[in-house]
Amino acid sequence: MHKKLKYISISVISLVLMALFISSCNHTKDKHDASGTFEATEVLISSEATGKIMEFNIDEGQVLKANQYVGFIDSVQVYLKKKQLLKSIQAVKIRNPEIQKQIAVFEQQIATQKNEKKRVQNLVDANVANQKQLDDINAYIALLERQLTAQKSVLNTTSKVLYEEASAMEVQIEQLNDQLKKCRIINPVDGTVLVKYSEKNEISIPGKVMYKIADLENMTFRAYITSDQISKMKIGQNVKVLADFGDENRTYDGRVAWISGKSEFTPKTIQTQDERANLVYAVKVAVKNDGFLKIGMYGKLNLLTEN
What does the alpha-carbon distance between residue 241 and residue 239 come to, in Å, rounded to a whole number? Predict the structure, then answer.
């Protein structure tokens, strides 16, 4: 009977030791350096034009490329204003004076009077004509030259005014071209549509959010590390990130992309290896998504130790 009790006691002790060993193994397995959540840079795409949405070809969950056309906003009124300005510029150009043609009369008169001056000069030299006739011709030539100068000044001023008027209209056309460009809805970044806020046939105004997009292929894991751990981390360092899927974890290769330059108080929702630490540093780890990672998913961070 004594031997039997001794055998039972040894068996119980063996079971207890085995349980402690398993518990210790599980504890070691679950040990991690930091915890955090997965996030992605979310971009709100807003309208840049006013009008009715004529076409809007996106759906939530759709993957879009940068510079991809997804729809357009009614632009008829803007286009008509542009046509009106183009006609106005043509009218201004027609009003622009032909300077050479308008001064040709004065130049011809001056040339004629100069020829007459030579003839009278010869007559004066031969004592056939008097000096007054020559003086009158010189005075008339001077008058014609002053009139020519004044006419050139008026025509040049008119031409410059019309040129500036046309230039101002061309600037307005550039503004309308920019408005027409903004009537086209072009997706600016690569990513997946998270939320769609607008629909076809709705009225859009500048600043109205149309959809939210984020690059889900390249996720960021944000975690917090203690001051003791920061000496073991540097930007560009490779780490392991474990995503929590409930019953199982998936391990991903990560690279430290950013480390905060200042410490902050431990967030209540974030656990760290040292629960007694009051100050921690935020870090961001770049992780390639295989399609399973989601924004807000919980995960753990393990530092890679060099052998």
Answer: 7
